[in-house]
Each structure stands twice: as C-alpha cells, then as structure tokens.
Amino acid sequence: MSRLTMGEADGTFEANLLRVLRARTAKVGHLPDHVQEQALALCLDALRPRNRWPENTRFYATIKARLSERPLGVLFAVAAGTTVALYLGFGPSVFTWLGSLLRGPA
Amino acid sequence: MESPAREAERRLGAAVAGGDPEAARRLVESYLPAVYGYVFGRTGLGAEVAAELAQETLVAALGAVPRFRGESTLLTWLCAIARRKVADHYRRESRRPLSLDEPASGALALMDRRPLPDEVAESDELAAAVHRAVWTLPGDQREAVLLKYIEGEPVAAIAARLGRSEKAAESLLSRGRATLRERLAAWGRPAQEDSDGRAGR
Predict the structure, then answer these.
(1) What pTM was computed for the model?
(2) What is the spatial distance between Cα B200 and Cα B105, in angstroms, rounded to a whole number?
C-alpha cells in the first residue's frame, strides 16, 4: 500500500491539514488605523480620473495656474478675447444688438 | 427576490464603480478589517504582509467592481480576489532563491499518521510550509483545496463554484491532496537526502 493511500484511508493527513490551515482563524488581531487610512488613500487615488479631457491638457493647466496668480488679468484677457471674437465673427452690428438686449424693451 | 442587504451591497458596488469617493470610503471602512482577518487567519502570513495584501485586494476590487453583479455577498467576492492576491504573493516568494536556513522540517509531522498536537499545528515553521504548499498548488486544485479546507465548503458547493461536476471536484481535491503530500514530504527531507526536493516547492 502506498504512503498516500494509507494517509487517505485513515484521514489523518486531511485532519492534520485542516488543523494547520485553520490554526490561526480565531487569532485575528485589530487592524491598525494607519493601514485603513493608507488603504483609503490608495483607493481614492485609484478612483481619481486619469487622462480625462480637459484636466490633463497643458492649456487647462496654464489657465488654472494663471487664474490663481492673476485672476483680474485673466478675466480682462478673456473679456478682450471674447469682444474681438464677436467683432470678427458678427461684425459691428453684434454690439448694437447686444446693447439693445441689455437695455431691455423700450 | 434580492434581499435588502444584497441590494445595498450591489448599490455600493455600483457607486464605487461610478467613482464615488464616499462609497469607496464606506467600502474600505466596512470591508478592509474583514478582508484583513480573512488573509491573516487563513494564509499563514504575518500581520504586516496580510495587511498589505488586504489593501491590494481592495484596490484591485475598485477596478473589478463594475463586474460585481451581486450574485454572492460582497465579502465573498472580495475574499475570492484576496485568494488570488495571496496565491500571487506565494508565487512571487517561490521564485526567490531559497535559503538553506529556511525552516521546513516541521512539515514532516504531516506525513506522520498521528494527529497533530495543537502546539505543533500552530507552529510557524509547520504553518509556513503547509501554507506555501497549498497556495502554490496549480489553479483549480488550489481553489478546490482552499474552498474545502479553508472555507469549509462541501463538495457540491465547490463543484458549483468551479463550474464542474461533483465527481470532477472530488478528483481535483484528490489530486490536490496527492500534490500536497508529495510537496510536504519533499520539504521534510533533509537537504543531503534529496537535493531535488526543494525544487518542487
């Protein structure tokens, strides 16, 4: 009879295996707080959007940085840019129309 | 009909999949201790490695959560991911060059036909050898052995989980035990008697 057959027949191998594999099941200690905090940080990092437009573009990063440094300057530049774009796109009549819109009904 | 608890878990999974940070916080706070407990209590690994693998499990779960359909409990699903992480860990470990000082002789006790006393069953040396042998079993043999001896599942449930017949599940278990006996016998032998023994681990 082989060694394996003997072990299978009397079940001792299985019983021993079970005892070893389950020896620690009742001994679970408290999970340290820093492990939970670390796991949360890792998970939140994993959830953070990657390669999402426009956050990852250089243009977006430049505007964001400038806006925090000189908000008034950026606003002035945006206003001037919009005015020029409107003039070039629709001609001088767009300002007459915008003016009547702002004045409201006569 | 789906139970309210199962429905809540499914909704939590969907919220995490949607990138909700508050849901991720709830997932970590509610399940990390249990996953850690599972890894520490059932793998023979130290507390530090168990904590690391539990963290890895939760991070991996975030990527896989869109596939969570609520067919099992969230914890059961997380434990299945944890088992893969632990198996990967043991596989990485087994590729390291082995030290001659590494303890292994305790595995001999398993070949003995007498039942193990508790203090022997709990010894780090024996536990390390047995866990390493179990967690590095080939794919389905490992899953069958883990479900049987660690989860305590009956053969019918193992067959269902593995998508096999009961006879096939029994056969996997039998082959798993045979592989374990071979490996543990090899571990227990002194190096001069069997220089090939360690290569099989």
Answers:
(1) 0.66
(2) 15
